[in-house]
């Protein structure tokens, strides 16, 4: 009995002590942040003219000069943080001028020394700052640090720093090889890092989609997915039939976004794809083209088992003028005994009713006349015309 009470008392004291230590640590961090903010405010006041000088001369032909006064360690940190932000903001010659300024101020050499002989924490911090300053001379040391790094958050700090500092494609390739050796699904993150590089990353992505390594193909496709690049079509088309579902989806997305005119045979294959998302993406992309030559292809989407695909097909056909509306009504009539047919019929009548309330608009009146004409002609109902 007494033993249990004593244990409980000791446990309470331990918890109180732990809470006290935690409170002291939190208070210390808060005071440090407050102090740093005050220093930054004082820095902004003291170096206001110098910061204006940088912004005013960033486009000039002359190199940027260092401050005319000696900086304290805290002021150096505040200035470096400001220059890091500016380097991320600017590109081209403006960025290179800021990078040269960092080197002249001694920031690069300071962090290179920390990277060579500092503690682990100092090395990671140095890697981050060297990446912000995009120091090309830091790449060999950063690659060495990356090779010995375990799979944790610091791995990506170092890798992103390498991508920013790299001047040659080989540096990027080594960084990617090391990251892929961890056997983790990092394709999207790696592509995002590479896009921050000064190296021609688009050319790298093109090179990788021709490789046989699925990981490199993933990275290449991820990097090209937001680009409307017709030159990628030939390489991407062979990946449409990939057995890897993710590669196939990425390849199809790029293929659909890279073409002005899509071959009907390919579109038909994609409309028969087992994935609803692929079928929906295909119908939406074809609809965006607003080309009546695809009316017969979109007509086949009306038989889809998923209503989202049907909705997209109906919208696409209704925006193709007379040929599209005729194909829409014919498609609905052909499957009128099926669930899809009844659903499409309801959509058509709803659209006719909606348009009937907007007959004051000439364009809507024309759509109303066209859709109602083909609807009544196809379903054998009495024709009613409205004429401007």
Structural notes for this entry:
The protein is mainly α. Among the domains are: 1-46; 72-196. It is 72% helix and 0% strand. The chain contains 21 helices and no strands. Helix 16 packs parallel to helix 18 (307-318). The radius of gyration is 32 Å and the shape is elongated. The N and C termini lie far apart (98 Å).
What is the topological layout?
Elements: H1 2-46, H2 48-57, H3 73-89, H4 92-104, H5 107-117, H6 120-133, H7 139-147, H8 153-165, H9 169-180, H10 187-194, H11 201-208, H12 214-224, H13 233-237, H14 245-258, H15 264-271, H16 276-289, H17 295-300, H18 307-318, H19 321-334, H20 339-355, H21 362-379
Helix pairs in contact: 1-3, 3-4, 5-6, 6-8, 7-8, 7-9, 8-9, 10-12, 11-12, 12-14, 14-16, 16-18, 18-19, 18-20, 19-20, 19-21, 20-21
Q: What series of H and E elements makes up the topology?
A: HHHHHHHHHHHHHHHHHHHHH
Residue-averaged pLDDT, rounded?
86
The low-confidence parts are 383-388
The shape is elongated
Count of separate DSSP helical elements? 21
User: Which structural class should the secondary elements be placed in?
Assistant: mainly alpha
**What percent strand?**
under 5%
Q: Report the sheet with the most strands, covering strand number, pairing sense and barrel closure.
A: none
Please report the total strand number as a whole number: 0
Helicity, as a percent range: over 70%
